[in-house]
Amino acid sequence: MKESNVPRRAALEEPSNSARRPWWPLVALLVVAALLAGALAIWRPWQKTADTASPQEAGTTSTAAAPAPTTPPAKECAPAPLIAVSQDLLEPLTQALAGHQPDGCVGAELTARADADVSQGNTAGLAGWIPTDETWLQRATPEMVATMGAQAQPFASSPLVLVQEKVVAEAMGTSPVPILGELVTGAKTWATYGQEQWGKFRLALPDPGASAVGAVGFGAMMHQVSGGAQLTDLGSGPLTPAQLAVGQLQFSVAEVTPTVEGVFGALGDQAADSRGFAQGGPRAGVVTEQAALAVGAQRPGELVAHYLPGAELRLSLGALDAERGEALTALGSYLSSEAGQAALTEAGLRTASAAPSAEQLSTVGLDAAAYVPSPVGNSVQNIVTSGQTFTSLTKRNSTIMALDISGSMMQRFGSGTRIDALRQFLAGGMALAAPGDRAGLLTFNSSPTDEMQVNIVMPLMPNNSPEGLVALGQYAELVGSVQPSGGTPLYNAIDVAYQHAIDNYDPKYSNRIVIITDGSNRDANGSMTLEQLMEKLPRGNDLYQPVGFTFVAVGPEADNATLEKLAAHTSGVALWAKTEADLTNIAQLAQFG
Predict the structure, then answer these.
(1) Long-range contact list for 454-460, CB < 8 A, 24+ apart?
(2) CB-based contacts of 298: which residues, under 8 Å, 6+ apart?
(3) DSSP string covering 313-354, please?
(4) By CB neighbour count within 10 A (0-12 exposed, 13-18 middle, 19+ buried), where does 84 fall?
(5) Greatest CA span in the chain, whole angstroms?
């Protein structure tokens, strides 16, 4: 019984016991112990380092082992600079920058912003800006220019193209740009190309006042239709052919969109009216090459595009926030690198070393050989002028026509009568009226008993509203069928026209009255005098409700002196059409001036 109480360790050391048991378990036990000691020696320094790097674990007891980290801690990244980019370039640039993460940090956050919005000083929260043309930077305020520093060199570009439905492109043939000029100016019509049923040529354009794409595109077409002239305004007096061409170009712009993408919404189905004319005519649009490629890939065989000569946008990076200059410099360096250039090329933009493949271009009918990829500078003046010209042209008119239908209008005038000439005058004005213009018609004469007849036969209303479309049809029918007779209550007609213009005044429009007469105030009982009329009309141009007056005297015997006196009183314009040719020039000025 005493032997049973001997400690086990002592028993293992007895020679008689070791002689009886195998030796290998002892060796294995020693090996395991050595391995455990080595592991503990390695673990303790590592644990000390981990505790130091993780202060949140400092409160744990020595017996609570912290879990070993499986990944290195994430690097702290500075907030990504917010960079504005035009809406039409947002997607391709976002894709191009998606893989750019220097040091594991996102390089930049892009946000859509109109070029004009940024150039006018609306830069809150922005660290940088990628405009669609580096010259757009120069429209910025002096304060912005001071914060931008040196401008980066362009790192990509995109030519502008005229994109249209395939059937329209086929009618235009292989040289659509000169044909565009002829269609816009009226030198040729779709009937010339066997497509009379198409009606007017209509164009969709990004807003030249808010987009460099629109400004450069409109400027390129201004040069085309005006024979290369760079117009700053429409001037005064009879219009030159170049001025008239630019005015007619504006009337072909049927739709102005905020972005390039919006242009494609204007292309497509155009339902025909009862006569077979397409409503608004077939459409084309001005877009960037990369946008045409993107849409062409989605709609293969449906669209065809042609390059606009000399119309190219270059992309550059403008810094707005000096504190984030390093981040923007790094981003610019990336875009200029081989990887950045490859990413931009993949996004459909031309770079210094590459252009879209011939296969991509052929998808939308673009001839790769027709474009020389050398940068074409668009001067600041050209961009600004084209935007300003378009803006001035698109100030919609609100015009009440006061038409003399007295008996003297049946007298001979050129190849017909005076009323025949005025019918052509009014029809031409209707044809050239921009979508959204307001039009109204007042006629005046006297009855067989010399009673005044001053009638507003069509009140002012937009020509593209449902009511306006109906009224315009009635207006055209009335002008075509009216039979002049009686006397001329001219002064009362001017007074009624002015009151109607004031009652319907709209500051969004250029509010005007055009008075057309071939005589003086006579043969109308109860008519006011000239002095009474001048007391009721504004002296000069009213500052709060400005209404422009255009007085048109028709025929060599017209009382132009009285009309000039009225024009001087109202700061208006008096024009004298002694011949048919004079009336043609006056019609242009009355429409555009």
Answers:
(1) 454/489, 454/492, 454/493, 454/496, 456/496, 456/500, 459/500, 459/504, 460/398, 460/400, 460/500, 460/501, 460/504
(2) none
(3) EEE--EE--GGGHHHHHHHHHHHHSHHHHHHHHHTT-B-SS-
(4) buried
(5) 158
Structure tokens at 99: 């893989």
* Residue type, position 389, single letter: T
Distances (CA, A) of 383 to 136, 138, 231: 8, 11, 12
439 φ, ψ (degrees, to nearest 5) = -130, 145
SS3 call for 212: helix
Closest to 518 measured CA to CA, from 490, 483, 477 = 490
Q: Which residues pair with 445 in a beta bridge?
A: 453
Give the C-alpha distances (Å, rounded to integers) separating 391 from 160, 207, 395. Answer: 21, 9, 6
Helix count and strand count (H, E) for the chain = 22, 17
DSSP label at residue 71: S
| Per-run averaged pLDDT (10 residues), the chain, 593 residues | 31 33 40 40 37 34 43 61 82 79 72 80 82 73 65 78 87 78 84 84 86 88 81 61 82 83 76 56 87 86 86 81 72 84 84 82 82 62 79 81 92 88 76 75 92 92 80 77 90 96 90 90 89 92 85 90 94 88 69 51
